[in-house]
Amino acid sequence: MRDLLGGKGAGVAEMTKAGLPVPPGFTITTEACNAYYEAGKQFPPGMWEQALAALRIVEQQTGKTFGDRHNPLLVSVRSGAKFSMPGMMDTVLNLGLNDETVQGLVEQTGDERFAYDAYRRFIQMFSKIVLDADPREFEQKLDEYKERTGASSDAELPASALKELVAEFKQIAERQSGQPFPTDVYEQLKRAIEAVFASWNNKRAIDYRNFNKIPHNLGTAVNVQSMVFGNMGNDSGTGVAFTRNPSTGEKELYGEYLLNAQGEDVVAGIRTPSKISRLKEELPQVYEQLQEIARRLERHYRDMQDMEFTVERGRLYMLQTRSGKRSARAAVKVAVDMVEEGLISEEEAIRRSDPTQIYQLLLPRFDEEAKARAHKEGRFLARGLNASPGAAAGKAVFDADRAEELGKAGVPVVLVRPETSPDDVHGMLVSKGILTARGGATSHAAVVARGLGLPCVAGCEGIRVYEEEKLFRVVGSDVVIREGDEISIDGDTGEVFAGVIPTVEPNFEKETELQKLLSWADRIRKLGVWANADYPRDAQRAVTFGAEGIGLCRTEHMFMEQERLPIVQKMILAKTPEERQAALDQLLPFQRSDFIGIFETMVNPRTGECYPVVIRLIDPPLHEFLPNYEELLVEVTRLEATGADPEALKEKKALLDAVAAMREMNPMLGLRGCRLGLLFPEITIMQTRAILEAALEVAQKTGKKPQVKIMIPLVGHVNELREVRRQLEAVAKEVTAEAGSAVEYKFGTMIELPRAALTADQIATVADFFSFGTNDLTQTTFGFSRDDAEGKFLMKYVDGLDAPGLPEKVKILPVNPFQTIDRDGVGQLVRMAAEKGRAANPQIELGICGEHGGDPSSIEFFHEVGLDYVSCSPFRVPVARLAAAQAALSKSEKDK
Amino acid sequence: MRDLLGGKGAGVAEMTKAGLPVPPGFTITTEACNAYYEAGKQFPPGMWEQALAALRIVEQQTGKTFGDRHNPLLVSVRSGAKFSMPGMMDTVLNLGLNDETVQGLVEQTGDERFAYDAYRRFIQMFSKIVLDADPREFEQKLDEYKERTGASSDAELPASALKELVAEFKQIAERQSGQPFPTDVYEQLKRAIEAVFASWNNKRAIDYRNFNKIPHNLGTAVNVQSMVFGNMGNDSGTGVAFTRNPSTGEKELYGEYLLNAQGEDVVAGIRTPSKISRLKEELPQVYEQLQEIARRLERHYRDMQDMEFTVERGRLYMLQTRSGKRSARAAVKVAVDMVEEGLISEEEAIRRSDPTQIYQLLLPRFDEEAKARAHKEGRFLARGLNASPGAAAGKAVFDADRAEELGKAGVPVVLVRPETSPDDVHGMLVSKGILTARGGATSHAAVVARGLGLPCVAGCEGIRVYEEEKLFRVVGSDVVIREGDEISIDGDTGEVFAGVIPTVEPNFEKETELQKLLSWADRIRKLGVWANADYPRDAQRAVTFGAEGIGLCRTEHMFMEQERLPIVQKMILAKTPEERQAALDQLLPFQRSDFIGIFETMVNPRTGECYPVVIRLIDPPLHEFLPNYEELLVEVTRLEATGADPEALKEKKALLDAVAAMREMNPMLGLRGCRLGLLFPEITIMQTRAILEAALEVAQKTGKKPQVKIMIPLVGHVNELREVRRQLEAVAKEVTAEAGSAVEYKFGTMIELPRAALTADQIATVADFFSFGTNDLTQTTFGFSRDDAEGKFLMKYVDGLDAPGLPEKVKILPVNPFQTIDRDGVGQLVRMAAEKGRAANPQIELGICGEHGGDPSSIEFFHEVGLDYVSCSPFRVPVARLAAAQAALSKSEKDK
C-alpha cells in the first residue's frame, strides 16, 4: 500500500477504513508519477479521467461540488512518498477558489473575511508552488497592507483589505508567470498535481534522498483531500501530535497546536504554538477523542505515530498519520516499552532499532562541571527548546552554504538560523548542531535534526538572529556572537553557551532500556562482538559495553608513551646487536605490565572467566618512532646557515642521516608488520616473552587462565608466518622451562593483504585464527592510501565529480569503502579467504578487526560470510551487538 | 639414466656401450646418495656389497687387483650429479695406494718417480677431500722440497724427494686429522665414497644450485673408475675438448691439453695448456681418433659435447662426456647449425635455447671509438684469453667477499683473481666481469663465467695479481691498479683497460643465426610479442627486434622533457581553469607530434600495415613533475636563516606551499592514474585529442591507418572507466566533426589493482582490452612498495634471513616476484581476471605490459593463462619471442 499510495496516502486510506474522522479524498499513485516521468512529463492515459471520477465521489461524500459558485468543494493537494521526507516536497491548500467560488465560501461560512483570507492564501501558495513565483513579493505586499491598516497580525486584516490583496496577488502572479492566474478550478487541480509530481525531483528532495539513502525511482503519490479549516474561529485549530514523546519516548501525547490557524502555521514555526496538554483545557472533548485515536493508531500500526489533525468548529479531523521520527533515546524506549506492552515481539524491537542511533546515545555529552563553570563565568547565553538531544560545540555560522563549506573542510560548526527551511538541509547535514530562534519541537529544524541525530536547540527566543550581518545578539544584554565565534549548545536541556564546553561520556550502565534491548540482541545474534583496545582503560570500557573479547590490542601504542620512547629510539638506532638487546631488555618489563593490566581486565563479569585477548605484535615502520625527518632537516639547515653550535650540528646531522636511511617512499607498503619481526627477530622475541610472562603471572595471581592469542600483522606469504611461528614456539618453550609451567596461547595472523586472502588455504595451515584487517585490505585492494585518498579524491568519488558535458555530478563510489565494506572487491577477498581458510583448517577461528567491525551494513556482510566475531572500537560495541542481531534476523528471513 | 647415474656416470656408461675407449668402472647411484642421507649418513643396506661386486668386475676387465702389492688396481672416485656442476664437488684420484701397492705401481710402470708422485698426490687429495685437512700445509711442504732440490716444477722433483714427501704428507695428515692415514685400500674407498656423498651438501654446491635453480634433493652419483695416467711421459697427456667452439659455436674441435699431466692440472689452470689443434702435430693418431669420437658423440647425444680424455702411453681414454656449456652466441649458432645438419628439429633447437642467454647476445658492447681512444690514451693494460663474451666495466676488487659486499650494494665491480676456484663463486655471481691472470678457456673462471653469462678475460699473463695487497701490476710497466680503481674488460677480445669505456648496442640485424632461430620461434608461438616504448627511437628498436606492436607507451615521459616541463608545472600550479587550459593548449602540439612519430614508426616491415599502439594516459602523481619538496624546504630555511633576499624567499615559500599541498604519504596509492583524469578531465581531454589528431594526420599523410588503443591506468572500479570512456567518446566525436572523417580507436584499461582483477567481469563490459600491469599488481597484492622493499627486505626474503636458533638462513620467497611472476598470488588474480573478463566480453583482448612480459618463466604462465600478447622492453623482445615458443611447445607436450 505504501509503495503505491505513499506514506500519507496509505495512512489516510487506513484511517478511513478504520472509521476515523478523515476528510474525504483520493490518492493518485506513485505508479502514475513514474508513468508521468516516463512519458516525458505527460499524465499517463486515463489518469485524469480516474481522478475526476474520484472527485465526483468526494463531492457526494461532502455534499459539495468542485467549482460550484454556491457550495464549492475546496481541496488540498499534497505530495506523499513511500518514505517520509518532511517538508521536502510541496503542498497546495484551498484549491478550487476563484472569484465566483469564493462567494460560495462566503455563503457556506457566513464569514467574508475568512473566505477572502483563504483565497489570498491559495493564490499565494499556488503562485509559489505551481507558478514558481518569487514568494517575497507576496509577503511584502501583505506587510504593506498590514502596515496600511494597522493590523499587527494576518488575522486582524479586514475583509476589504483582503479583497484588495486578492486582486493585487493575482496581478503579481500574472506579472511573474507571464499568464493570467488560472480561474478554471480543473486547470488549478491539473497543474497542482503536476507541480507535486515535479517536486519529487527538486534539489531539496534529491539531497534529502541522497543523504538518507532513499532510492530516486520510487516517485511520489498525490493526495487530493477535501479541505477542512482550522482557522474558522477559536473552536477551530490545527496541530500535530506524537503518540509518545519523540524525544524521551515517554508514553504521553506530545505535540503542539494553534487555535484558529491552518496547518502550515504550525509546521513553519512562524507562530509559537501551545503544548498539546493545553488542549485538554481548551477543547477537552477533542483532546479525549485524540487520545483514543492515538491508542487505536498505535494498536493498528504497532508503532509510535506522528499525527496531523485539524479541528473545524469543534469537529476533529485526522489529516495524516505516519510513523513518528524520534530521538535515539526515544527509539530505544518506545521499542522496549512496546515489547513489554505486548504490541511487538523482541525480534521486531531489534529489527526496527537503528544501530547508528544507538551509537548517538553513547556519544559524549557536556561535562557537568565544565558546564557549571561556564555558567559561573557568565558564558550562558539563553535557553531554547531541547529539540534534539546531544551536545555540540563549534563555530557559529549563519547560512547553510557557509556551513557546508566549513563543515566539509572539517571545521566543527553550529548552524544558527532564525528558523530553518528545506533550503537549509545541505548545511544542516555537515553541522555539529542546530540553533534556531523560532519554531517548536516539531518545527522543521527540530524534525530534521532528530532525523539526522544532531543536537538541536529550537525556538530560542532569548537570541535575535541577524542573517545579513552574520551575528546574533542576546536579548537583554550586549553580547554579540559573530560568524566564527565558538558556541556550545545542549540539545538535552536547550541551553546555549559562548565558547567551547568539553564533553564527557554517557553512563552506559544507567541506560536500562538499551541494556534490555541489547540483551535480546545478544540472544539472537550469531556473531561474537569483541573490541579493539590497547590499554586496560579501553578494555574496561569494552567489557562495560558488552564486548566478549579483545580482537585487536596494538602493542606499538605502548612504545609511544613518553618514558618509553627514548628507549625505543635507542633500540632502533642501535649500532650493535648488544645495544639493541640492552634496549629491548629495558622495554620488556613495560610491555609485560601492559599485558598484565589487559589480561586482568578482560574477565567475563557473569562467569568470572577470562575473555580472549588478541595481541598484535609490532606493526608500524620503525621510523614512525623516530623524530620527524623534515623537522630535523630544517634544524640542520638552520644550524648550518647560521654557523652556530658546531657540536649540536654534528649530533643533529648524525641523527638526520640515521633517520634518512630509514625513510620510505611508501611506508604503508614498506618495512613493517611481520617483515620487521623477520628482520629483527629480537623485537618479536621480546614481545612474545612479555605476553607469555604476563599471562603466567596473571594466572598465578588470580587463578584465572588468560586466553592469549598472538597475532602477526601484514603476512603475505605462508613462509613469513611459518618462520615467525617457529621463533615464537622457541620462546614459548623457553618461558615454559623457566616458569616450570606451560603457557597456552593461540597463534594467528591478520589477513590484510590481497595475497594473504588469495593464498589463505596455505596460510591457514600454520594459523589458529585469522583476523581480517579490512582497513589495510581496503587500501591495498583499491590501491588507496587512506591518508592521501580521503582528502584528495575519495570524498569526491562518493559525493560526485564534476563531469564535463553533464548537468549532474557523477558518483564513482556509492559509499566510502573505509566506512562500509566494498562487497564486490574487498568483500570478495574476505569471502574467498574465509572459505579457503576453513577448507584447509576447519578449526580456524575467523574475525575482523578493521573499522568495518562497527558498521552495521558491513556487519551484515560478515554475518553472511560466516565469520565468528567482529571487533570494533569500544563505543561501537553496542551498535555491533544490535547490528549482528539484525543481520541474523535478516539472514534467517532470507533463508526462509 | 641421468637421474640415477648422474651426468658423468650416464656419459661414461653410454660411451662404454657405444664401444668407445673408456677406463672400466662403475657408478653408485644418486638413489644410494639419497638413501645415505635418509639413513642419517649411513650406507644403505647392500650398497657396499654391490660396490665390491662391481669392483671385482673392474678387476677382471683391467686384469689388475685392488690393493694388490704387485699389480694394483688404482681408481678415481668422482661425484656426478644429474646437472653438471663444474668444480663444485669433490674428486679423489689414484685411490688404492699405500706403502705396499706403491711398490706394485713401480713394478707396473718401471717408474719410481711417477709412482711416488702419484702416491703423494693421492695423500694430498685424500687429505683435503676426505680428511678435511688444510691443503696449504701440503703445498708449503711441496714448495720446501722444490726449493731444497732446486726443482723448478713438480715434475723435476726426484723420486727420493717424493718418497720423503710421502712420509711427510702422511704425518701432516695424521696431525691434522688426529688419526693415522688409512692404509687399508677398502677403507680408502669407503671413505672417499662418503666424502663424495657429503660434497653434495657443501656450501659451494648449495650456492651453485641456488643460483642455477637446481633442486637440492637430487643427490649425486659416485663414479669409481680405474685410473689411467696422463703423466707417464710425453706420449701421455690429458685434456678437455669441446666438439664445437663453445665461444663462437664454430664446428671445430676446441680445447686444450697438457702432455705428461693429470687432469686436474688442466682444470685448475696452474700450467697454461696447449690448444687442441697442436695435438694434430704432437699425437696425430690420437687427434684423429678424438675427432671421430667427437662426431660419434654428437650424433649420439644430438648436442655439442664437452669431453675429458687422457692419453696413457699413446692410448686414448675417454673419461667423461657431457653437454658442453657455451656462450650465448655459440648456443644459437650450434642449435641453428644442428638443425641445418639434420641433427635436431627446429622445435628441438627452440626447446634447448636459453632465452636469458639470447638476452646477453643483445647486451651492449664497448663503443669501438671509445676503445680506440682508450688505446690512444695509453689505457690499454694487457690482453688475456677471450674466455666469455661481453664487455664489463667497474671497480677492480680482489676477493670474492668484497665483490659480494659491493656488488650487492649496487656497485659495479670486476673481480680480479690470480685464478678462481669454487670458493670464489659467491663473488662472481654479483660481479660485472671476471679477470684472471692464469688459466685457460676451460679454467674454472672461464667455465663459470660463460655459465653465468658474465664477460671473462682469463689467463691474462700480462698482469700480476697481489691478493694480499689488493692490487695488480702490469708486467713491464709501473702501472698499478688498486682495489676500487675502475677497469674495463672485453670478453670478446680479451683486452683489459684502465678506466671505464662506454658501451654501444649490438647490431641485431647482423645476427643471422639468431634471426633464423627466432623466425622458427615466431612460427611456433601463440603469444604475440609487443614492446614497451615511449619514443619513436624505442619504437624503432622494438620493430627491429621483432615486436608486433607497442603494448605500453607512457605519455608522462613526454611531459618530463626539458622544454615542456615548465609548461607542465604551469598547468599543475594553475590557479584558475583558464590558466590550466592555456598551459594544456601549449602542450597539445608537443604530444601530437610525439604520437605522430610513434604511429609512423610502428609499421610491419613485411606487410606495410600499421602495428597496434597502446597509449596510456598520464599515470604518475602530478607532484612528480614539481620541484623536490625537501630541496625547497632547505632553500627556504636557508633563506630565512640568513635573512637575505626577501623577494626570493617569498617566491620560494609560495612554491613550497604549493608543493606541500600536493605531497602524499604513499604516492604509489595516491592521486594518480585515472584518478587524475577524473579530477582534472581537461588533461585527459587534451591527451585524447592529441592522440586522435595524430592518428588522423598520419592516416592522411601516409594512407595507413594507425591502430590506436587508448589505455586508462589504475582503474579499481568500473565507474571510473565508464566516466573516462564517456569523456573520451565526447572528444572523439568532436575531433571527428572537426576533421570530417571518423577516427577509430580501441579503449581499454590496465589491470593493476587487485580490485580491478576481482571485478574484471564488471570492468570488461566497458573495455575493449585489458593490459595487466603486473608491476603495480605485484606491489599491491603483496603490499610491497618496490622502491622500499627491494632495498630493505625483499632481497633478504629471496636470499634467506638469519633465523635465530637455526644453522641455515631461511628463505621466505623462492624468487623476486618483481622479476618472475608469483603464480600463487598475483598469478591467481591474473588468471581470475582473464577468465572473468573473457566471460563478460568474449571479444576482449588480453595483454601484459609489466616487466614480467620479458621473463621466460612468467611468459610460460601467461601462455598457459591464454593471454593474447606480452609486451616488454625492446631488448627483451627476442627473449620473449623465444620464450613464448618454448611455452607453446611445453604446453602442447603437457596437453598430450
TrEMBL record, chains A, B:
Catalytic reaction annotation: pyruvate + phosphate + ATP = phosphoenolpyruvate + AMP + diphosphate + H(+)
Molecular function terms from GO: ATP binding; kinase activity; metal ion binding; pyruvate, phosphate dikinase activity
Required co-factors: Mg(2+)
Catalytic residues as annotated in Swiss-Prot or TrEMBL: H444 (tele-phosphohistidine intermediate), C849 (proton donor)
Annotated positions binding Mg(2+): E752, D776
Any coiled-coil regions, as ranges: 276-307
Keywords attached to this entry: ATP-binding, Coiled coil, Kinase, Magnesium, Metal-binding, Nucleotide-binding, Pyruvate, Transferase
Record domain PEP-utilising enzyme C-terminal: where: 511-887
InterPro entries referenced in this protein's UniProt entry, alphabetically: ATP_grasp_subdomain_1, PEP-util_enz_mobile_dom, PEP_util_AS, PEP_util_C, PEP_util_CS, Phosphohistidine_dom_sf, PPDK_AMP/ATP-bd, Pyruvate_phosphate_dikinase
Chain positions recorded as substrate binding sites: R554, R616, E752, G773, T774, N775, D776
Residue ranges annotated for the Pyruvate phosphate dikinase AMP/ATP-binding domain, each copy included: 3-40, 53-282, 288-341
EC number: 2.7.9.1
Sequence ranges assigned to domain PEP-utilising enzyme mobile in this UniProt record: 412-494
Family from the record: Belongs to the PEP-utilizing enzyme family.
Annotated protein name in UniProt: Pyruvate, phosphate dikinase
